[in-house]
Model the fold of this input.
Amino acid sequence: MPTLTGTYFRGKLKLDKPVKFSKPVKVTVSFEEENNDVLTFSDFSFLETQELLKDCKTSFSDEVIEERREAI
Done:
């Protein structure tokens, strides 16, 4: 089953690539929600993170290991 992508705008669906079938085929169309809250690399600050964690007395690795042990 091929997966096709395209754009729907003003009642019309335009596929990114042409496709040919010898007979009619059933399709399912899913509309992806636009996510305007996409994070980018510039949304993160190493210096800000260091400042937030300056009083932390343990390492992130140790916390992850401990959390996994508790889950067993």
About this structure: The mean pLDDT is 85. The longest strand covers residues 6-9. The beta strands are 6-9, 12-15.
